[in-house]
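Now for one specimen:
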Amino acid sequence: QNFDVVVTDLKMPSVGGLAVLQEARKKNPEVIVILMTAHASLETAVEAMKAGAADYLTKPFSLDELTLLVKRQLESRRLVARVEALEDDLARYVAREMIGESAAIRDVVRMIGKVARTDASVLITGESGTGKELVARAVHAAGRRNQGPFVAINCAALPEALLESELFGHEKGALAGAVQRKRGRFEVADGGSIFLDEVGDIAPAIQAKLLRALEEHSFPRVGGTVPISIDVRMIAATNRDLLADMKEGRFREDLFFRLNVFPIHVPPLRERGDDILLLADHILARLQPRIHLTEAARLALRRYGWPGNVRELRNVLERAVILADDARIDVEHLHLLPWEGDEAEEPITTGEGIAAVEKQMILKAIEDAGGNKTEAARLLRITRRMLYSRMKKHGIRD
């Protein structure tokens, strides 16, 4: 039969405790085995631990001592199983939603994995459109509160009076048109996580009330006096420079340090290398699985600076799917806008423009690969022979 815990004597007439230990772990590697011995020694303990024993007891011992040891081992096993389950949750979420293989995005995933097991407040920073809410949802999905609600609110989208009511709720008659009591987002998020997007846009008066709520884990509704207790995980995000805002008095220093317990920075799309193409393929598979990008279109996407980040990429591809007449998306369907880092003054639409893009991409790949042509071909996702052919075509000397 299977057991959670096996308690066995070390010295027995026919079969020794180590043999029981080995047989039990052969049947179930996860079983907890505790050895009892009247001949405890360092050598005995080391031998037992090497064989996989969880712990050992020296005779004589009390029943309370044995009970405590078994409870401690079971609790430890439960915590390990919970951590493994959370890691599995994160892995599934990342595989489904957080597309990318660059070092920058792997670092973000690693940070999510570390903080998700805790209840620490998280401040996510990054440019608009980088996927800060996606990171917030990953923190929630991989945390112990993932069975609770995930409540998101865009703080920049609401005026001050309405935002206060949305966050903390209000009593009947507290506001014009408040014909009944309303629960705020903090109450709705109790037992789960609350995500305050664009937290840097909150007015100073609400910043003070937010800080008090976070420190005391309670607050009164607008127009009320009775404190409402809450148990939520705080996740906030901003595309603003909060340090600069603090210096200029636009953001409270004490609130910043309360939110910034564990910072995660989401890199802009232009710093994620080939993730651009992985994301493009992923988005297209959802929009229209039968359509694909030509090599010229892929080069153009890889070269573009993406000031609007992943949000802009999604919009560009959605428009391109509509414009494309067949199963191919070419450069002329992308309609990429000029941006500050772009050397061209106009979007690339002509054959001459495509050739220029291809040449620049080849030169960049060779530079990034340190002159190694095999590595440059891998970065471009073409064969080495094809790379040499393209180099010859564009007059690029070895």
Q: What stands out?
A: DSSP finds 16 helices and twelve strands in the chain. The radius of gyration is 29 Å. Confidence is low (pLDDT under 50) at residues 341-351. The first helix runs from residue 17 to 27.
